[in-house]
Amino acid sequence: MDPIIAIIISVSLCLITVFFCYRYVKKTFDDVDYVLDSILAKKTDISLKTMEDSRLSKLGHKALRIAEMNIMDVSQIKHEKEIIQSFISDMSHQMKTPLSSVTMYTDLVLEGRITEDERQEFLYRIKKGTEKLQWMMDSLVKMSRLEVGAIELNPVPAGIKQTISESVSDVYAASVKKNISIETTYFDDIMLLHDRKWTREAIANVLENAIKYSSIGGEVNISIEKLPIYTKINITDHGIGIFSDEWNSVFKRFYRGRNAKGIDGAGLGLYLASLILEKQGGYILVDSRPGQYTTFSMFLQNCKK
Amino acid sequence: MVILKTEALKKYYGKEPNVVKALDGVDLEVQEGEFVAVVGTSGSGKSTLLHMLGGLDKPTDGKVIVGGKDISGMTDEQLTIFRRRNVGFVFQSYNLVPILNVYENIVLPIELDGNTVDQDYVENIIETLGLSEKKNHLPNNLSGGQQQRVAIARALATKPSILLADEPTGNLDTKSSQDVLGVLKMTSTKFHQTIVMITHNEQIAQLADRIIRIEDGKIVTMEGWI
């Protein structure tokens, strides 16, 4: 009798173990299945106990992150669409003014009932308007290419001295026109990670800005300062200045300072400059005291040894 | 996508009639990948706000929703796990473990959660933050700026949903501050990291995509675009 009872007991024990194993495996599979279903249904409110210290909870947490990433991708695309839309409306708004003045003066000249002086004046204004449109078009093309990543910046170790002097030569004509001297504090050339063509453009934009908001006969200073990771290029002017609550905004697309309304501009130069620096792992800061000075500091990465 | 959201968030300290309203109804939304600066004077409630966002403290009333999950009702134990998996913290003090070297400090939170280290990702962070040569150094042999960069690397290593920084340059001189700031900015663009940074300094705040100003426990302005 005894061996039979023993066999029965062991067989039933085996069956019970198998039953519980089956239950456990089934439950785990059901949970995993549930998580995957939730991901497919794009739900992030997975009610698995994701806040426990268990293996299943960790799995649930990771599944949740995957679902979130999916949703993020979709909303990212939506967000980009919105950016493009707002961009187009901003842009058309900016172009309207010079375009309508060109149209108006052209009509007046075509009508012909004007004096020679007026005719000269109107033609001059038409020229100004088209120049502004041309400049805006150029900036917009650059901007859109940079934004969508159609242009990849290629930061390589290169001497910053040459880049700065190229930028200065870009704005030389504008500075001469306003009798503004550009002074550079002496520095030893430093190798910095930057894309020369684009960095030249960024520095020139900031210089142009400094010249535009300085009074005639003013001075613009350039100096270099080395930090552990970055090297900064400071450009200081003594023009109208920027209020501290606008320091963040001046680098936004199409933003114009409160006290810059009387001066011609599109709000693109500084935006483009900050975009260019950001694309190469650098950044730009401003410090200003209205009526006294404005310093833009451009940070570029030092070469890694 | 909104990664972080508060609804009518309140935090009161003390009892009537001496109630201090540190936060008095804050409604806030932060988009995924955004770099937001919260600016306010001392006592404005900005640090209290950060503690609520990171699940370090529980609100008196209102909700904090991180990645679609309401954390205001969680137990302490749940909050601990939530923080470990979702939030990276950078404080004014660096809080590095002095007996561990730089690399060990950085991967510590990953190992605490029992996960394997994503070597490539961690190396990328270390490289980005300019710490490649300091990997085997002990924290005490580093400058303040370097220690803070290690703290940032540690906060990033777990790939958190949000990075919360409370006066990250508060203990640093201007030069180191600008370095640390640049690194934060690079992090937000390169790793598409959502960052909420608390500061009283306009110079530092200007680098953010958006500035939120807080006074007497209330948001006064939200600037910036989109």
Automatic annotation (TrEMBL), chain B:
The cross-references to PROSITE patterns, in alphabetical order and at most eight, read: ABC_TRANSPORTER_1 (PS00211), ABC_TRANSPORTER_2 (PS50893)
Q: Which organism is it from?
A: Lutispora thermophila DSM 19022
A Pfam family found in this protein is ABC_tran
The protein's name = Putative ABC transport system ATP-binding protein
Instruction: Enumerate the GO terms in the molecular function aspect.
Output: ATP binding; ATP hydrolysis activity; transmembrane transporter activity
Q: Where is the ABC transporter domain?
A: 4-226
Q: Which family does it belong to?
A: Belongs to the ABC transporter superfamily.
List, alphabetically, the GO terms of the cellular component aspect.
membrane protein complex
Note the InterPro entries from the entry: AAA+_ATPase, ABC_transporter-like_ATP-bd, ABC_transporter-like_CS, MacB-like_ATP-bd, P-loop_NTPase
Give the record's keywords alphabetically.
ATP-binding, Nucleotide-binding, Transport
